[in-house]
Input
Amino acid sequence: MIDGCDQYQNISLQRLFEQRVLLSKDNNAVVFNNQAISFSQLEEKANKLANLLISSQIKPHNRVAILLDRSIDTIVSMLAILKVGATYIPIDLNYPSSRIEYMLEDSQCHAALVDENGLECMNAISVQSDVCVIRASECEAMFPGFDAHTSQPSDLAYIIYTSGSTGKPKGVCVTHQNLLNFSAGMQKSIGLDSVASIASLTTVCFDIFVLESIVALLQGLSVHLVSDDQRKSATALAQVTESVDALQITPSHLTLLMEEPRFTAALSKLNLLLIGGEALPQPLLEKLQSATSARLFNMYGPTETTVWSCVQELTHRSQVDIGLPILNTQVYLLNEEAQPVEEGEVGELCIAGMGVSAGYWKKPELTAQSFVQHPLVSNGKLYKTGDLGVRQPDGSYQCLGRKDHQVKVNGHRIELGDIESHILAVSGVQQVGVVLSQNELVKGSIAAFVVLHSDESLNPGQIREALVSKLPDYMIPSHIQVLTTLPLTDNGKADRKSLVQYPIQSMEPVDVQSASLSKPEISVPETDIEEEVHRLWCEVFNRSPICCEQGFMAMGGTSVLAIQLLGAVHSELGIEVKFSNFITRANTIRDLSVWIEDLILADMSDEEIEALMASELPSIETQQ
Output
């Protein structure tokens, strides 16, 4: 029973969705790439897929992985798995094969729902356990009716894998009660049903996607699912934002997108803006309050307590804090002895209530460390977040950052020990310290400082190359520097505080093709377009010069930097390059310049091309 919200009294998630379909059957449920399906059509597709799962021997409490390209079928799959009473496990097809293999093995998946790319992924990996591969497209011939299973509150709804300190991701087990309470909490705290539509731009493996999909649908919202290409384009996201009422986004992503004037203008059309996943900088709040009249909310919560646990409306508020707990959620500030701190003192933020998940899949010892019994909590357990906080005079809470070796980068929670474990596994590496650098030149980037065995001559590019097949791109350090020794504290431990501010002037990432620590020969710009593109790369990477034939990822480029670069290309050169084309076909200055030239020529008339060929190539400004 979910106390405090009548809509959620004594009802299962499956029945709640069926009620929503009856209320909103002809309304758009999901919009993707100019294709829209209604709630009744979504129900029918989910029923067909649920019948396919049943015919494939999937039963309640089984675990089913989702390996699909981003599409309407992503949401259909989540609903179908829940209808059967099974547990869904979202997996990003862009993850390294070794990580996908581990998630499938560790979760003991009974089946994997796939499309063509998902099938190719499954064929390319080696999974020891018996996983039934089910093509989602085969559901079209199935019966459109389905008598959905009624799940119990303690049944698992989904397992989300997050970074783990041992080098292996850990699965967070979220129950139906957790999910229902979160949905009720969002309704009560922010009035989600006050808007008609929401943009869904988060990756399916990020737990906040749950709000942009299942929770939004339960409240009757139309979910505008953003494609992978749209997610990487500020212009495309501006178009989506102009067409919806609500948006959920991380501060880092929002800061990046607001460099595009059209996106900033689009914010003014929103009615609701949810910001979370990492700390919200004060200057960004002030910028937002000037850019939009939308209701602004700062959202806080770890995956282990079901997406968001605290909410603060910041529409007319000058100070950034995380606010108050949502429905049926309690927050405590505890000291090192697990005792409540005095009023105004700093303590560890600990969360109790209906949002606290069932713990980590198959990791009882790790679960026992973070999910604890406590005298303050009469029913259930207390989750220790590892975040430090303080209670404000008005009763709201302020988060002061991490107390451990965990950070958030672009909304992704990352165990730095996870990255260190993989770097130490690289042959030739003796020691490593990974930090979130606060050096002004690279503030907020993951930096790795490496000590090699005396007889080794690895360069940063070779280390990065070894990580590419093991870690998601958001976990690969933007900067890797080889040191003779790591700085140490007085007790002989690696001095991470020193590394956080370590000088990075010599921290020049080396191309993976380079075989030595010597700086590679620089290939300089040869055309006007290359000059312009080179300038933009230098601004993004904050260094100069850059070799025109050096690969973007080999330089330490990330998806966030790529979005920033392509946004600059669009705003300054008037050319829009798709993220997928940039990564696969045009990821050097030289190749990107050729790609831009081709796009320019494609927009020119025959007469303009003849005039161009009869003269010297004009500047970018002349052509635009």
User: Anything to note?
Assistant: Residues 97 and 125 are 6 Å apart (CA to CA). The chain is about 35% helix and 20% strand.
